[in-house]
Design a protein that fits this description.
By secondary structure, the protein is mostly helical. 59% of the residues lie in helices and 4% in strands. The chain contains ten helices and six strands; from the N terminus they run αββββββααααααααα. The chain has a two-stranded antiparallel sheet. The termini are far apart. One of its GO terms (biological process) is protein transport by the Tat complex. GO terms for molecular function: proton motive force dependent protein transmembrane transporter activity. It is found in: Cell membrane; Membrane. This is Sec-independent protein translocase protein TatC.
Length: 324
């Protein structure tokens, strides 16, 4: 009778389990007492129960419920480089078509300016011829023509110069419209500030050539041959020199802009340019003798001196404003 409750307890499963031979104590894997972590949505999870998200280079999320990885928008990021806000992908054919249409507009303006120039080419030739020689009208040597098409070719060249002057602002505007979607806002401001300045400098260079350099040059030519021979200026060759010198000085007057842009972009410094000035002087002399060669050497000397003065003047202004 005394053993019956014990047997009944065994039958009801109230006895403590006994360890089997060969089995060790229960293994504690460390999860039993580890606190749960709550997510932003209030759900709890075990830290080691869920995989960690990665992007191949580093951890993106610390748990599965963290959400999707924050990757850059492919429309705003190409190869890790952000793109302007207005930049849109276009087929290559559309880009070429737009470029051709804008170039056609530039040609149209240039052709219109050339046609207008042809209407008054004869009067323009006479005016320029009498103006570049520093003498009275009756003392200016007359132009000579040495082949049948020389007069017409000179008219066309002079008219084409007017067409280029008319087409240049149009070219600047069409280039800006073509590149505008691919430019950042600060780059657009930079373009709109530098390009018109370049046009103004080109106009100043042409005016400098016409008002100062050409009269001095032709006065020297006249004095150089005076007393030894009668001067016979060929119409075509004379205007070739005028057009070449005027166009080259329009490019020469871009030197201040090039220097300022290089310093602003961090390509060089004013101090480095000042230290290497002799090399620049030699380069200016070489370019002037290459593009404005004449037997008297007067034209390349005038151009080289102009380039050096522009270079040194720009460095002086930069030093005055405190740019090193």
């Amino acid at each position: 009778m005394s053993d019956e409750p014990a047997n009944r307890g065994d039958a009801e499963g109230t006895t403590e389990p006994q360890e089997s031979p060969g089995e060790g104590p229960p293994i504690d894997d460390g999860r039993r007492d580890e606190p749960s972590i709550a997510t932003d949505g209030g759900d709890e999870y075990e830290p080691d129960d869920r995989p960690v998200e990665t992007d191949g280079e580093g951890v993106v999320g610390d748990h599965a419920d963290h959400g999707e990885a924050d990757y850059p928008d492919p429309d705003d990021d190409i190869g890790g480089i952000s793109t302007p806000p207005d930049d849109e992908e276009m087929p290559l054919a559309d880009h070429i078509e737009e470029m051709v249409l804008r170039f056609a507009v530039v040609l149209l303006f240039g052709a219109t300016g050339t046609a207008i120039g042809l209407l008054g080419a004869s009067e323009a030739l006479e005016f320029i011829w009498l103006d570049v020689f520093p003498a009275q009208a009756e003392e200016v040597p007359p132009p000579h023509i040495y082949h049948p098409l020389e007069l017409w070719m000179t008219r066309i060249k002079l008219s084409a110069l007017l067409g280029i002057m008319v087409a240049l602002p149009t070219f600047v505007y069409e280039c800006y419209k073509f590149m505008k979607p691919g430019l950042y806002p600060h780059e657009r401001k930079y373009y709109l500030a530098s390009v018109p300045l370049s046009v103004v400098l080109a106009a100043l260079g042409m005016l400098f050539s016409y008002v100062l350099v050409l009269p001095v040059l032709f006065q020297y030519f006249t004095y150089y041959a005076e007393g030894s021979a009668d001067i016979a200026y060929a119409l075509g060759e004379t205007f070739d020199l005028i057009i070449t010198l005027t166009g080259f000085l329009a490019i020469v007057f871009q030197i201040p802009l090039f220097i300022m842009l290089a310093i602003m972009m961090g390509v060089t410094t004013r101090r480095w340019l000042a230290q290497k000035r002799l090399y620049f002087w030699a380069g200016f002399a070489g370019l002037s003798f290459m593009f404005t060669m004449d037997p008297t050497m007067m034209a390349p000397i005038l151009v080289a001196v102009t380039m050096i003065l522009l270079f040194e003047g720009t460095l002086l202004v930069l030093k005055w404003v405190g740019r090193d």
